[in-house]
Specification:
Pfam families: APH. The chain is of the alpha+beta class. The strands form three sheets. Strands 1-2-3-5-4 form a five-stranded antiparallel sheet. Helix 4 runs antiparallel to helix 5 and helix 6 packs across helix 8. The chain is globular and about 50 Å long.
Length: 308
């Protein structure tokens, strides 16, 4: 028998707009912050709200077991602030992270009253500076294992056919073997983990800052360059001049590295698996997942993939 999530105060509420709104109200009440008029900015790996009553961003993790990850993100943010690194700041005076409605909630200072994205060249500058930092052992950053993440993503697939799952599993096994043979050339160390233009905003002074610090870990630095490359090369979301500026400012072109296509395929697989977690709850996601699966199966163009 499947229990009703609403029957237990510890059971996570559904990760829908209605479910996370209830979590938001509960968390803000505990933090003594006014949640009235909250604006839902996005509903993906996190539900992200902007509060009009104060310059605050509230993030609610989709994964109900994300407490360790979110605690690390808070510690990373405080360390980056001590290094005067341009990044999102945790809201002072609030215990972080909070648990509400079976979800993990964090509070952040709002960069500004509207979302203004920076440029890919500014992203490159931030990554170059980040990769020069030497993290303290006190952060206890994990070592990044992409295929641990890949295989755990299969467990969260929702509404995906058995045939599609089998195809993706076969692809994952092949890519896992190819990944193990890669010869990385950049130094191993601190990375953001999800470095892309969507995670670089301007603050009120116009400065570019890095946001979404959940994925900080230790890994080959190539991981922080791959998304910008495939956004240009495979999806056409960046233009040539944008990508050339990114390469010039960072100082390395990952597309000239022999392992580029394998790393690109792995990152692409992660994007498809992430979309597959939402097939059962979103018609828009189901349509996009079908489009992406068709491209993987046929080797077709990725130019019609939509950013989420």
């Amino acid at each position: 028998m499947i229990s009703d999530p609403g029957t237990s105060p510890d059971a996570p509420r559904d990760f829908t707009a209605e479910g996370v709104e209830a979590v938001l109200r509960e968390a803000c009440e505990e933090a003594r912050i006014d949640a009235s008029g909250a604006e839902l900015l996005r509903l993906g790996s996190n539900a992200v709200y902007r509060l009009p009553s104060a310059p605050v961003i509230v993030r609610i993790a989709r994964d109900p077991n994300a407490a360790t990850e979110m605690e690390r993100a808070v510690q990373v943010a405080r360390w980056l602030e001590s290094q005067d690194y341009p990044a999102t700041r945790v809201l002072p005076g609030v215990r972080q992270p909070l648990s509400a409605g079976g979800r993990v909630v964090t509070f952040w200072e709002s960069a500004q009253d509207r979302e203004e994205y920076a440029t890919v060249t500014e992203l490159a500058d931030l990554l170059r500076r980040l990769h020069w930092l030497e993290e303290p052992e006190s952060l206890r950053l994990p070592y990044f294992d992409p295929f641990a993440k890949v295989w755990s993503s299969f467990e969260a697939l929702d509404g995906v056919s058995a045939d599609d799952v089998a195809f993706l599993e076969q692809r994952a096994r092949r890519l896992g073997k190819e990944y193990d043979r890669l010869d990385f050339v950049l130094p191993y160390g601190l990375i953001h983990g999800d470095a892309n233009i969507g995670n670089v905003l301007r603050d009120r002074s116009g400065r570019a800052i890095m946001i979404d610090l959940d994925g900080f870990c230790l890994a080959p630095r190539e991981w922080d360059l791959i998304l910008t490359a495939i956004y240009y090369d495979r999806f056409g979301w960046h233009g040539r001049s944008d990508y050339e500026g990114f390469v010039h400012h960072y100082g390395f072109d990952i597309m000239n590295w022999p392992g580029y296509s394998v790393l690109a395929d792995v990152r692409e697989l992660m994007m498809v698996l992430w979309m597959g977690q939402q097939v059962g709850s979103s018609e828009k996601s189901a349509t996009e997942f079908s489009r992406r699966m068709h491209a993987l199966r046929t080797g077709g163009s990725r130019r019609d993939w939509s950013p989420f």
